[in-house]
Design goal:
By secondary structure, the chain is an alpha/beta fold. It contains seven helices and seven strands. The chain has helices at 12-16, 30-42, 57-70, 94-108, 122-137, 150-160, 166-171, and strands at 2-7, 50-53, 75-76, 143-148, 179-185, 189-195, 198-199. The protein has a seven-stranded mixed β-sheet with strand order 3-2-4-1-5-6-7. Strand 6 (189-195) and strand 7 (198-199) form a beta hairpin. The radius of gyration is 16 Å and the shape is globular. The two termini are 21 Å apart.
């Protein structure tokens, strides 16, 4: 099957460099709403059979135009939330943003015991995100869209897809309303076929592989 991992559209927190992971979170900016609307045409060639979305406001707003165009209800799942920033929530300090990124990178490399201060563990993140992926894989659709968050997509793909490394995700962000396409099954494993419009080889990329 094919998973389309979609980052939400732009928010004011994105503009201002704020660690903003707590619910309900900010709404989309005008630019973010345009990005969400543009997903309808960008994904018109995909035979999307199901749509799942993070409960955070920005993700639900991003999913809304696609849900309307597909005439499919977006299924809200807390498992698609962003990695919680915990005690770092709301910070714009470079050292806090760097610490958040370092913990996320450790989790992507399989070191889920590295703590995010005041937040759930890396193991908890993978349990909840994997749970939604397994549900999506069992829903009967061949193509499923999941509207989620940038760091969550990068950490999950590095850890769970065979051809994307931690080094790759550290060097490649997921743009607002960017789409990462993944193919496979929970039983046989996954590989990333495209990253924000760029096709990827199915053999392993250079760098530290995911667990």
């Amino acid at each position: 099957m094919r998973l389309l991992l979609i980052r939400h559209g732009r928010t004011r927190a994105n503009q201002d460099g704020v660690l903003d992971t707590a619910p309900p979170g900010p709404a989309l900016t005008a630019a973010g709403r345009r990005q969400a609307a543009a997903l309808v045409d960008a994904l018109a060639g995909e035979d999307i059979g199901a749509l799942y979305v993070s409960p955070l406001t920005r993700a639900r707003m991003t999913a809304a135009p696609l849900s309307a165009a597909l005439a499919r209800r977006a299924v809200v799942r807390t498992g698609l939330r962003e990695l919680e920033a915990g005690a770092l929530e709301g910070s714009t300090a470079p050292e806090d943003i760097g610490r958040y990124a370092a913990v996320a990178a450790a989790w992507a490399a399989g070191r889920t015991g590295v703590p995010m201060p005041g937040a759930p563990s890396g193991a908890a993140f993978f349990r909840r995100f994997d749970g939604v992926v397994v549900e999506a894989a069992g829903c009967g659709a061949e193509v499923v869209a999941l509207v989620t968050h940038g760091t969550a997509v990068r950490v999950w793909t590095a850890a769970r897809t065979a051809n994307v490394s931690v080094d790759f995700v550290l060097e490649h962000e997921v743009s607002n309303a960017g789409v990462v396409a993944v193919e496979g099954t929970p039983e046989t494993g996954w590989h990333t076929v495209s990253w924000c419009g760029t096709a990827l080889a199915t053999d392993a990329l250079s760098g530290t592989g995911g667990a």
